[in-house]
Amino acid sequence: MTLGTIPVGETKITTKKRSGPLPAMCAALKEIFTSPKWNEKVFEILESKITEGKKRTGRPGMDLWQIFVLSQVRLCLNISYNDLHHIVNNDHLIRQIMGVERDLGMKDMSLNIRTLLIMSVCWTTRLCMN
Description:
With 130 residues, the chain is mainly α. The chain has one domain. The chain is built from six helices and no strands. Helix 1 crosses helix 2 and helix 3 crosses helix 6. The protein is globular and about 45 Å long.
């Protein structure tokens, strides 16, 4: 976590919204992230499917949690990558669940569409092939 970032565990999820599945999905993702039992299971799967056999040099842009959240948003809403790009850079709830929403006047992190597409294709390809 970087300075000024709102912790995922402190994300306030409204239950008053009647339209759309996002609040329930965000509550589930928050539970996965904050519960050690679920967190370990999910990250074990993510690491085995995405990072297996690769050097840990990384790619600037997104970590495993952020890739997981965005893949869930895309599947839940059945949206295009362009719509996902708009959501990731503008929806505060999704940004908080991803762990990138800033507070304290810090500059917000924004993801470009190329990074989003590369990471999403990597995620989809690795999971669907196994």
